[in-house]
Design brief:
Layout lengths: L3 E6 L2 H12 L5 E6 L2 E5 L6 E6 L12 E4 L3 H11 L2 E2 L4 E3 L2 E7 L5 E6 L9
Parallel strand pairs: 1-4, 5-9
Antiparallel strand pairs: 2-3, 3-4, 6-8, 7-8, 8-9
Length: 123
């Protein structure tokens, strides 16, 4: 079984550029490219991100979104903003998790987070 996450978008090329920059640390690369589809995959078992060109712009809140776990939240927030993501929230915290809500260049929401520190970790 394979998990594929499909993201509707107006401009698959622009979205591919944005998401490849965001997911580069995980080794994502372009794969299947046959309009209206363009997939981003990685050699690991991470899900495929399938970009699907659609004619309509996004309206309303996503019912499903990506959550990206990182080690350095401030650095990732800065990087995402430099790549063109728009911050939709201030820092949020719950159950030891800290995160921000962002929108990609076409307005699709996603979160970037750091998990709670374990009792045995340094710092």
């Amino acid at each position: 079984m394979e998990i594929v996450v499909t993201l509707d978008c107006i401009d698959t090329e622009a979205q591919a550029g944005f998401w490849l920059d965001v997911l580069r640390p995980l080794g994502y690369r372009r794969a299947f490219d046959a309009p209206p589809y363009l997939s981003l995959t990685t050699p690991s078992s991470a899900p495929t991100l399938l970009l699907q060109r659609v004619p309509e712009v996004k309206q309303g809140k996503n019912r499903m979104h990506l959550d990206l776990g990182v080690e350095d939240l401030p650095a990732e927030v800065e990087k995402l903003e430099q790549l063109g993501a728009r911050r939709l929230s201030n820092e949020l915290t719950e159950h030891g998790f800290c995160w921000f809500v962002f929108a990609d260049p076409e307005g699709n929401e996603f979160c970037v987070f750091v998990p709670p520190k374990t009792s045995g970790s340094a710092g």
